[in-house]
Design a protein that fits this description.
single chain, 438 residues, alpha+beta, Beta-Lactamase, Helix Hairpins, Heat Shock Protein 90, 5-stranded antiparallel β-sheet, 12 strands, 15% strand
Length: 438
Amino acid sequence: MTLWPRSLFGRLVLLLIVVVGLAALTTALLFNHDRAALIAKQFSETKIVQLKALRAALEGADEPQRRETLSRLGREYGVRIIPEAQRPLVGGPTPQGPAMRDLEKRLQDEIGPETSLRIAPRLGQLFVHVKAGDAGYWVGFPIPPRPPDEDIPWRAATWAAIVIAVLLAAAFAFARYLARPLRELNAAVERVGRGETPLPLPESGPSEFAAVNHGFNAMIGNLRQIERDRAVLLAGVSHDLRTPLARLRLGVEMSARDEATRVGMVADIEEMDRIIGQFLDFARDDSQSALEQKDLNGIVAACVDRYANAGHDVRLSPGELPPMPLRATALSRLTSNLIDNALAYGAPPVDVSTTRNGDHVVLDVADRGAGIPAGEAERLKQPFTRASAARTRGDGAAGAGLGLAIVDRITRLHGGSFDLLRRDGGGTVARVRLPITG
C-alpha cells in the first residue's frame, strides 16, 4: 500500500494540496517573523530615553533601600525590574530576525555592550538586560495588546483558512477538468475492447489531449473501414462459392454410381457449405440489429428443438429468467454455434441449461468429450483457431475455426463474458454470462 495516488487526478490534487500547504506554512513563518518587527517598532526612542534615565536611577540606589527603590521606579516608569542576582535569565530568547537584531544592536550602542533582549510571552513583556553600577537588572517593558479589531493572528488564521479552502476547491475542479479527457479516453478504449464502436472523442482542450484524441479517432475510423472491407470480402467470397457448390452437389447426386463415393463427396460439399456459412455469420454486423425485449429461454428452446428433431441428443434445462433486451437472431446463432461445437468436438449428451445468478443470466452448453487442455481456452476464442489433437472431429473434418469467435463477439456485443471451462467428470462447459438490463 502506498500513499502516492495511481490516477493522474489524484496526483494533481495531491500536488496542489502540497503547494497550498507550503504556502500556508510560509505565510505562518513570515507572520511570526513580522511579529518581531512589530515589537521592535513599538520600542521607540522615548523608551530608550526612559531606559537611560532608569539606569542612572538604579546606579544611585542604596543597598538598604534597594527593594523600595526598585518598586518605586517600577511604578514611576511603568516597568518591571528584576535584579539579575535573583533571576539570571528571564523569559525566552527573542525571535531571530533583522528587526530584533537591529534593535538589540541599537540598545548596545546606546546603553552598553552588556545589553540583551528576552521575551516573556506569558507575562506579555519584553525584558532588556542593563548594567547599572556593579549590578545587572532585567527591565520588563509591557508589549501593548492589540485591539480586537486589529487581532492580526486570528485574522490571519481565518483568512488563511478561507484562502486554503478556496484554493483546494479550485484545485479539485482544475484537476478534475484536466483528468476528464483521460477518463473519456479510458471509457472509449474499454468499449473498443468489448467489441463496441465508441463515439468520436472531442479534439479540443489541451494540445496533448487533443493530439491523442485525434489519433484515437483516426484509429477507430481505420478499424471501421477494415471491418467493412473484411465483411464485404467474406460475404462476397462466401456468396460466390455457394453457387458452384450447389451445382457440384447436383452433379454428384445425378452422376455418381458408387454410393460410398457419392456419400463422401456430398459430406465434403456439406462441410464446405458449413464453413462458408460460418464466414457469412462472422462477416455479419450484429451491432446494427435492434434490441428486443425477449425471454432467453424461448430463443434457446427453439434452437434445442431443431437439434432434437434432427435426432441429436441435446437436452434443455431452463431456469426462471426475466425478459431482457436481446438481439434474438444473434443469440440464436450463438446457441447454434455452441451446440454445433459440442456435437462436433465433444460427445453426447449435450446438456443446455439457463439460470439466473444475481444480476446476470447464465447459458451453459456442456458435453462429455475429451475436454479442453489447460491454456487452450482463450486461444480457441480467436478467429480461425482450431482445437488441438485432444479435441478434434472424429471424422477428420475441420471447421473454419470461427464458431467460438462468433460466440465471443456476440457475447461482448451484449456486454457479457464467454468462458470455456472443464466439466466435472470429463468434458467441456461453454458458459455465456449476460447482464440483466432494461
